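Q: Sequence in, structure out?
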Amino acid sequence: MELVVGASEATMKALLGKLGNLLAQEYALIRGVRGDIQYISDEMASIHAFLTNLSSSGNDDGHDAQTKDWMKQVRDIAYDMEDCVDDFAHRLRHDPRGDGCLVEVYRALYEIYTCRPRRDIAAKLAELKNRAQQVGERRLRYGVVLNPMPPQREARNGATQVGNQTTGENQVAGRRLITVKEPIGVARAIEKLEAWMKSRSHNNRGVLAIHGFGGGGKSTIAAALYRKHGQKFDCRAWVTMPQKFDDRAVLRSILSQVMLPATASGGGDRRRRGGSRHAKIETMSQEQLIKGLKNHLQNKSYILVVDDVRSAEAWQTIRQYLPDEEGSRVVVTTRFEAVAGECILDRQKDMLHHVDRLSDEDAKRLFQESVSESMTSSDKMLGQAHIDVSREILDLCKGLPVAIVTIAGLVACKPQAFEKQCAKICVSLPPVSVDCHTPEGMTRILNYCYNSLLPADLKTCSLYLSVFPKDSRISRKRLTRRWIAEGFISEEHGQSMKERAETNFNLLIRRNILKPVDHSSDGKVKTCQVHDMILEYIMSKSSEENFITVVGGHWLMRTPSNKVRRLSIHSSDVKHAKETMDRMNLSHVRSVTVFGSLNQLPFMSLKLGIVQVLDLEGCKGFKKQHVKDIFKMLLLKYLNLRGTDINSIPSKIGKLRYLETLDIRDTNVQKLPDAIVQLERLTSILGGNTMAQVTLKLPAEATKKPLRTLHILSGIEITGEPTSVNDFHGYTALRKLGIHKLQIQEGTPGFKALLSSIQYIGGSSLKNLLINDESSGFIDALDSLTSPPRYFHSIQLYGMFIKVPRWIAHLTELKNLTLSVTVLRTDTLELLQKLPRMFCLIFSSWTSSKDLDLVDILEKNKSDSEGQILVKHGGFDCLKLLRLDAPLLPLLVFSERAMGNLERLDMKFNTLEGVFGMDNLASLREVHMTAGEKAGEITKSIVRELEAEAGKYANTPRVVVYELAGRGSRSHTPNDPE
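A: Exactly. Output:
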C-alpha cells in the first residue's frame, strides 16, 4: 500500500467536511447550484470509500501505474474543489436572514452586490462537476478496480486497533527522561577514536575520516565524540553537507556556531547578540565569510564535524577555509571510501575509520532494546518485554542499525503476534533477495514497514515530515499543531484533535520513524529527529506524489510539473531559490514554510487568499510589505513568527477569522491590538521572550470580550495599569496560562479579580499554570483560595515568595512542579513527598531579583532547616527528575530509601556546600552539576570529589560536570507552558 493513499484520504476527508458545511448553510449562491454541490459531495464520498478500501487491500508491494495515476487525479480534483469552496467562503458573506420588509431589501441588495462572484463560482463548480464525472468514468474505462483480499482485513484492523487501543497510553508513550546512551556495538571503536581525540600534542590540526554505508552509525560515533569532548575546545561546530554543495551555506553555518561560545556571560545578552550576529552573517559575501572564519578561529583550538560529505571536491573546498591551529580536530563522515581517503593527508596525525556491520550479538541486543523501548507498558505487563529475535530477521538486517531499528519498530506494535509477524516479514522480504546495504534493498524494507501496518492518517503524518530539513530538531507541539491546521487530524473515538495528534505523534515514536532527542521536564518528548535514510525515503515519496514541494533541500528533487500545494523552502541561496520557484505554479499553495531568509518567500507568486499554514520560525528580514501581505491571508489557520524580527502586530489581524494558532515567542512584539478579540476560532496565543525579558500585553478589549475558544495563553504580563487584563472568568476553555510578569498590588480590584479567576477556571478547564510574581505577593495569596484547583497537571511559581500554597499537597494529578528556590527547605519537601504522580520537581532561581537577595533568603532557609536540606525516606513514588538551581546550595542530604525512583539529579550553583547520601538513590542514572562562573575553589573541589565518588556507588550513575555556565550548560529558564 503506497503512502499516497493516506495523503489522498486526508485530502478527501477535509474536502467532505467542507462540502457538508457548505450544504448546511443558506448562502444565496447555493440556492442556484445546490444540485452541483450535492453531486460533487456524493461523488467524492464514493471515491473516499474506494480509497479507504484500497488502503486496506494489503498490497504491500504498491499499486500499479494506472491506480497511482488515478489516485493523483482524485487528489488534484479534491484540492481544486477545496480551493473553490474556500474561495466561496471568503468572497461571499452569509446572506441576510430573517423575515420582514427590511430583510427583503437587504437580501435584494446582497444578490445584486454579489452577482459577479456568485456567477464566477457557479461556473467553477459546474466545471468541477464535469471533472468529477470524468474521473469516475475514467476509472471504469481503464479498469482501475480493487482486488479484494479478505485475509488482509486482519492486518488493516490491526493497524486501526493500534491507533485506537490504549489511546491514553499512546498519548504519553514518550514520557521518560532522555539519557545519553552509548551506541551499541561501537564501544571499542569509540575507545580507540577517543584516544586519538585526546592526543592533542601534534603541532597542527588532525582529521578523522569515518566511512561506511548509510545507516551504519557514522554520525552516531561522531556525535558521541562531539558530545564528550566538544567542551574541551575553544570553539565547536557541526555542519551537514547538502547533496548539492553550497560552500557559502556551509561557511555561514560554521561561522554562526563558532561565534556563540565567545559570549559566555549572561544568557539574555548572548541570545540578543547571537541573533544580531546571525542576521549579519546572512548578508556576508563569500570573501567576508572566509575572512571572518579564519580570524575567529585563529590561535584557538576547535572541533568541527563535517557530516555526510559526498565528494572529495567538497571536502577540499572546506579544508582550505580552516586554519591549521594546534590541537584542533576535524571529524568527517562519508559513505564513500574514496572520499574518506582524500581526507587523510598525514597518517601520523590523521586517522581513517571504517564502520562495519554489527556482530550478531550486538544486532540482537539492539533489536531487543529497540522493541522494548517501543512497547507500551500494557504489552510489557503481558510478558512481552523480552523478544527473542529470529535468525531470519538478523540475516535480513545484515547488522545495519537503521534496518534493525526500523524492523523493531514494526514488530513492537504487535508483540503478542511476534512470531507470525516475523514469518510474514521473512516471506515478504526474503534475506536472499534484499540487501539492506544497497539503496534499493533499504527502500524495500522501508516500503514494507510503512505500507504493512501504518493506517492512512499515520501515512499522511509521516509524509509531512519532509517539510523539515535534514538533521533538524522538530518540536512536537509545532508538528502536531501543523497537522491539525492542515486538516490531517479529526476527532475520533472520543478524542479531541489535539489528543489524536498527540497519539499519532507517539505512534510514530513507537515505530521508530521519529527519534526522541529531548524531553520536557514532565517526561514528554519535546523535540525529535528523523534518520536521514528514512527522511530521504519520505521526501522522495512526497516529491513523487506532489504532496510537499521542497526547494533547496539536502537532496535534489525534480521541479514539479503540476500545481504546488505545500511549499517548504530550505535553501540559503536566495538567488537559486527564486530561480527554482519561478518555474513552478505557486497559485495553489496552501501551506508555506521557510527556513532561513525571509527574502526567499515568493509573496508575488502566491494566491494569498487561500494560504492556511504559514511557518516562518527563525526567519529574519521582516519589512512592512511582508507584514501587509501576511495579514491578507484571510484563511490562515496557523501563523508561526517565532524568533523573527517582527516587532508589532497590526490591527488587520482581525481579518484572519480562521486563525487558530498565533506563535510570536522570542520576538519583540509586546502588545496585541484590540482586533485580536475578533478571532473567534483562536485556540493558542504564544508570546513573550524569556531571554530578552519581553512580555506580551493583552488589550483591554480582551476583558470586555473574552476569547472563549482560547486553550493556551502564554508569555503575558499583568500589571496594575487600568488597561491591564486581569480578569479571566470568561476564558472558560483555557487550559494553560503563562504569566511571565506579574506586578499588581495586593488589595486592589485587579488583584482580587485575578485571584478569583484562577480559582474559577482552575476548578474546570485550567490544567497548567505559570506565574512569575516579581513583587506583588500574589503567590502568597494563593494559599487563601477557598476552592483550590485539584486537577492541575503542571504548576510553575517563580518569585521571592517564601511559603508554598498548602493545597499543592492535595493535587493528585500533578506531574510537573517548579517552585522558586526561595522555598527550598526540609519542610517544603515533607509537604510535597506524598504527591502520587509527580514526575518532575524543580527549585529554580529564575527571577529578576539580585543573587544577593536570594542568598540572604537561602541562608535563612538553611538556618530554619538546621543547616541542611534533608530529603527524608518514603514518598516521591513517581519522581524521576530533581533539579536545583540557586546561587547557594546548602548541604543536601538524602536519607535511606529517599526518592527511590529518581533517575536524574541536576544542580546549578555558584556555591555548593555538599551532597551526602547520593548512594541511597537506588535508581539514579545521571547527575549533572554546573558550577557557575563565580564558583570558588572550595566549590570546585567538592564537585570533583562528588564526581570521583560516584563511581563507587552500586548504581554507578553517570556524572556530567560543567565547570562554567555558558559552556554547554543547561538553561534554567522556565519551562514554556507549551
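Residues 157-179+359-545 form one domain.
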